[in-house]
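Lab meeting, item 3. Inverse folding demo.
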């Protein structure tokens, strides 16, 4: 071993000799691709541009959300869009940059003045209250990294699999940010909620006035919060500026943006958002209402739809998440779900947050199918598509969490298939 405290020895540690000492994947991987012995092997230094008030992405990095309308209507104009999907295939790690967080806004993005905006807390409470953004910022805060996922995520694959879809098309209605705000329990205590109030109505200040009835379970009282911060800065207007509800693990729709009202009561309000919408017909002819939790899910983001791979070593990577808790395990099959191997879960694997997984695979150049399957710490396993369809049928639109299969043909082209 070299003594890392001696500069002369440090200089001698070339990348190659260091890696030659390591065993297994890393050693063989690097030896084939890069073998720099000296600085002459890397590009020269460059004169820098001026510093700026805002830092921009490199001109070599192209990242954008894609606007979509109803399923099947892609690449519409932004003015026609009902949502914008996150480029999951191009993201690294687990945090979604704020400007790439997926968006679902039912009636556009209101431009609210934080100095005028208020949150009304009323109904079955002893002390009805009105809060400004400043009031909230004076209260004790929490910051938590959680995913928000639209219940429509995955709806593209309910009936058929369009082979031209990317993972941004199939799964781009999920993102993970760090949100900062005031615990719901703090607000509930401040307003002195009546003990018989078991439901809460949360209503948005947009023209659509999206409003949802939320059951006040202990889990929700412990974990929900009213956020004013997103990835270290005030919320972006598209994501609810100046305040929104965050409901870790539950339907995206419950994370009410531009929050203007929390009303407490002893029964659900049965708004149009939980009757006409977000209620769905199952295979047995019955409809599910208040199907609030987002289920155990995962998707391979690379290689994924429309990419092309070459025979040889591949890094298979993707994202897994569960509204029940933490991801405990992700398995990958590279032979069309016949055999499975555990992928490596990259830490930290946080509860109700996206977790990244990776695996090395050597593709032999023959057509095959790759698929991932996640298991959470409550024992929920992501279903394969045939079992999922047996239970939910094909008339539903929301809460699709069946395993995603990507087919690879003999030319290395990757495409979306049902199973
Ligand atoms: N007031 C209001 N809240 C809303 C919505 C809306 O249109 N208006 N859309 C909901 C839906 S359907 C989803 S999936 C999430 C999306 O949050 P995001 O746009 O920050 O990703 O916000 C929810 N909250
Ligand atoms: Mo949604």
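The presenter then showed the designed sequence:
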């Amino acid at each position: 071993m070299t003594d890392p405290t001696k500069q002369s020895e440090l200089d001698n540690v070339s990348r190659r000799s260091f890696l030659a000492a390591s065993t297994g994947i890393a050693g063989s991987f690097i030896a084939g691709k890069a073998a720099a012995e000296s600085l002459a092997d890397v590009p020269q230094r460059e004169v820098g541009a001026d510093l700026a008030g805002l830092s921009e992405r490199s001109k070599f990095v192209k990242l954008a959300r894609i606007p979509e309308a109803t399923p099947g209507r892609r690449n519409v104009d932004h003015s026609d869009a009902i949502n914008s999907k996150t480029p999951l295939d191009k993201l690294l790690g687990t945090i979604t940059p704020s400007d790439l967080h997926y968006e679902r806004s039912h009636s556009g993005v209101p431009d609210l003045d934080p100095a005028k905006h208020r949150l009304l807390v009323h109904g079955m409470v002893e002390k009805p209250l009105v809060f400004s953004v400043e009031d909230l910022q004076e209260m004790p805060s929490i910051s938590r990294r959680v995913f928000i996922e639209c219940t429509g995520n995955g709806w593209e694959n309910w009936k058929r699999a369009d082979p031209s879809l990317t993972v941004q098309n199939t799964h781009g209605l999920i993102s993970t940010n760090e949100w900062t705000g005031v615990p719901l329990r703090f607000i509930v205590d401040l307003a002195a909620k009546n003990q018989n109030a078991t439901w809460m109505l949360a209503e948005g200040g947009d023209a659509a006035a999206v409003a949802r009835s939320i059951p006040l379970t202990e889990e929700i009282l412990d974990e929900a919060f009213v956020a004013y911060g997103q990835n270290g800065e005030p919320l972006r207007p598209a994501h609810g500026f100046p305040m929104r509800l965050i409901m870790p693990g539950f339907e995206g729709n419950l994370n009410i943006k531009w929050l203007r009202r929390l009303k407490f009561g002893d029964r659900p309000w049965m708004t149009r958002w939980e009757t006409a919408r977000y209620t769905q017909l199952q295979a047995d002819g019955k409809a599910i209402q208040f199907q609030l939790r987002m289920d155990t899910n995962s998707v391979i983001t690379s290689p994924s739809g429309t990419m092309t791979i070459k025979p040889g070593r591949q890094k298979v990577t993707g994202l897994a998440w569960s509204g029940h808790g933490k991801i405990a395990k992700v398995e990958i099959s590279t032979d069309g779900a016949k055999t499975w191997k555990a992928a490596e879960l990259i830490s930290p694997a946080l509860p109700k947050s996206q977790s990244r997984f990776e695996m090395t695979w050597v593709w032999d150049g023959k057509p095959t199918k790759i698929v991932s399957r996640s298991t959470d710490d409550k024992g929920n396993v992501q279903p394969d598509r045939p079992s999922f369809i047996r239970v939910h049928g094909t008339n539903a639109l929301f809460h699709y969490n069946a395993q995603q299969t990507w087919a690879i043909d003999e030319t290395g082209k990757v495409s979306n298939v049902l199973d």
